[in-house]
Model the fold of this input.
Amino acid sequence: MLIKYSVKTALTGLITNKSRSILTILGIVIAIAAIVLIVSIGQGAKDLILQQIQGLGSKTIVVIPGREPEGPSDFVNVFLDSLKEKDYKLLKNKNNVPGAEDIMPLVISSVKLSYFDETYQATILGGGDDEINNLMARIFDIFPDRGSFFTPQDVSSRASVIVIGDNVREELFGESINPLGEKIKINGRNFRVIGILPSKGQVSFFNFDDMVLAPYTTAQQYILGRKYFDRIIVVAKSEKVIARTVSDIEITLRSSHGITDPDKDDFFVETQADLVERVGFITNILTLFLVTIAAISLLVGGIGIMNIMLVSVTERTKEIGLRKAVGATNKDILRQFLLESVLLTAIGGIVGIALGVALSFVVSLILTYSLGLNWEFTFPLSAAALGLGVSAAVGLVFGIYPARQAAKKTPIDALRYE
Amino acid sequence: MHLIEVKDLEKTYYIDSVQTPALRGVSFKIKEGEFVAIVGPSGSGKSTLLHVLGFLDRHTAGEYHFDGKTINDYSEEEIARVRNKEMGFIFQTFNLLPRTTVLENVKLPLLYSGVKESLWEKKARQVIDSVGLSHRLHHESSQLSGGEIQRVAIARALVNNPRIIFADEPTGNLDSKSGKVIMELIQKLNNDGHTVILITHETYTAKHAERLIRLSDGAIKEDAPVDHRLVAADHFTK
Ligand SMILES: Nc1ncnc2c1ncn2[C@@H]1O[C@H](COP(=O)(O)OP(=O)(O)OP(=O)(O)O)[C@@H](O)[C@H]1O
Ligand SMILES: [Mg+2]
Done:
C-alpha cells in the first residue's frame, strides 16, 4: 500500500477516536514538554553561569593551592598552605613567566565585622599590589563609587584600610551615616573605611556586595594571621599565550617546591577555559539527570499508548478482517497500526515541544524580570529535535506489540467476531 | 481445467480439546464462469466451505485446488494477492468500514492491489456506477440502506475485476425487493464472465444460479443443475 494512503488510513483511525487519542497522547505531551523545558532551562542556566565566569576575563589564570580535585565531589584539603610569598615573587619575575601581564595574590576568609552595636558576617578579600595602582579593582572590574581604592603604599605598609561592599555598608551604617572615614572592628582591630563599592550583585563567583576588600598584606598580618595565599591570579598578555603561561607557572612552582613528579603537585592551575568546561560538565550532568527522570514519564506514556492500541486492535477486529479479505497482507496491517501509534506519539511530541518551548519562554521572562537575571531565551532546537525523535521512537517501540497482534488476526477471526 | 477442484475436503474446528467437524469429505468441481448456489440448513457448513474456497481459512484434510494450485503452494503474501486480484467477497454483514465513504470503501482493494493510484478514482467510480450508486459516492455506511450497502459491497468485490465472486447470504438481511436488485446484479456480473459462488438458505434465491449444491451436516446431499432458473426482473435501472 502506498505510504500516503497508510498515513491517511492511520490518521482516519485516530480522528475517528478523537477524544481517546487526545487522552492517550497527554502522557507523551507532558513528558516531552518536561524534557524540552528542562533542557532549555539547563542550557539557559549554563549560559548564564558561563557568562558570569567569563566576566572575570578569558585571559585570567588562577593558581590554587592543594591537589587538583579528581571530580566534582573530590574535596581535598592537603597542601592548602602551599602558595607562599616566595612563590608569588618567583611568578612575578618576568624571566620565569614572560606571558604574565598582571599577577596578584589573593586571600579569602569569612570575618565578623562590627561597628558599635551593629555586626555583620562578611567575606574579606585581600589583594592588591605594592607597585601597581588599582590592580585589584582592575582584575575584578570593580571600582568604589565613593571614596577610593587602597594604594600600593597601603599594600606595602599594611595599612588598616578597607573598601566595603554595598550590603556591608547598609547593614552596618544604614542610610543615615556616611561610612567614609568610619572605623570598623575586625578581630578587635580598627579598620578605616576608605571606599564604598557600588551595588553589583553576583560577579563571577563573588558577590562583592557582601565583601570587604583590603590589601592582602593587611589581611594576612592582622586578620588571618597567616603567611600563605588562597589564590594567585595571573592575567596573561593575550589568549594565545595562556597555555604557555600555564606551563611556565607550573615549572616555576614545581622548582620552587622541589617537585619533580607532576602527579605530586601541591598546587594546580586553572584557566577560565577549564572552568567553563567544568561548569558545562556539571550542568550537563544535572540536565541529563533531570531528563532521565522525565524520560520515565515518557515510558509511562508509552505504556499508555500500548494499552490503547491493544484496545483499538480488539475493537477493530472486523475492520482488520475485512481489509485482509480484500487483499491486505500481514505487513500492510502491521504498518497501518504501527503508523497509527507513531503518528499518535509524534503528534504528542509536537504538542509537547510547543508546550515546552512556551513554558521555557515564560520561565525565561520570569527569571529576567522578577529575578533580574540576564537570562537569555534560546529556542531549544536540539531538545525539540530530540523530543520529536524520542516520541516517535516511543510510538514505534510501544506500538509494535499491538500492531503484531493486529497483523496476526485472520479474516476468519473478523468474520466470526461479535 | 476447472477453476475450482475439491476432493474429499474436510474441515474440523478445534477449540481446546473439542472437535467440531464442519465439512466431512466434500468433492466437486466448478468451471470458470459457472454460477453455483450452495444451500443447506443452518450449521451445515456452507460458510465454512466458502471460507476455505476463498482462502480465508485452511482445510484440515482432502484437497482443494484453485486454478490448479492449493493454498499450501502460496505464501501469506501470495494468498493476500490472490484474494485481492482473483477473488471478490460479499458478506452478509459488516461489508463496509464505518465512517468511511462509499468511494473510499470501494477503493479499499485497490489500496492493496499495486494498481496505479491515478486509476483508482476512475475504476472505483465505474463500478459504483455499475451498481447504480453514483449519487451516493460520499455517503458513509451509516447513511445507506441495507440494500445500498450490499450494492457497495458488490462494487467493491468487482473493482479489481476478479475471476470469482464469493457471496455469503448477500440478501440475508434484505427485504425481497432489495434482494431482487442484488440478485439481478449478481446475475449480471455472472453474465459478464465472473464465476459466482453464492451461499443462501433460501431456495428461491438459489434458483437464480445455474447449479445448486445442497449441503447437510458437512456433506453434499445434492449437486444438480437448476431447473426453471429464475432471472431477476429487469427493473434495475442505473
Ligand atoms: N470458528 C469455529 N469454531 C468452532 N466451530 C465452528 C466455527 N465456525 C463454525 N463452526 C461450526 O461449524 C459448523 C458449520 O458452521 P457454518 O458457519 O459453516 O454453518 P453455515 O452452514 O454457514 O450456517 P448458517 O446458515 O447458520 O450461516 C457449525 O456446527 C458451527 O457451529
Ligand atoms: Mg453461514
User: Anything to note?
Assistant: The beta strands of chain B are 4-15, 18-30, 35-39, 61-66, 87-90, 164-168, 195-199, 211-216, 219-225. Chain B has one domain: 34-58+86-233.
